[in-house]
Design a protein that fits this description.
Blueprint (H helix, E strand, L loop, with lengths): L8 H9 L11 H27 L1
Helix pairs in contact: 1-2
């Protein structure tokens, strides 16, 4: 991703730093928790990829 993705860092960091769940709509609390955890993991992975490309 590299330097071209730097403008996205604040948007990726915001859900990572939140202390509340991301708003998702699922029929069960467990489903909402699972979706929230997947979104958080995806944001962490994307941030890690951006920062790794910059460090190299």
């Amino acid at each position: 991703m590299g330097r071209h993705a730097l403008p996205a860092l604040p948007s990726l960091t915001a859900p990572i730093d939140r202390r509340t769940r991301l708003p998702v709509n699922d029929s069960t609390r467990d489903g909402e928790t699972m979706l929230d955890e997947r979104l958080l993991a995806a944001a962490i992975d994307a941030r890690r990829a951006i920062l790794a490309d910059i460090a190299s």
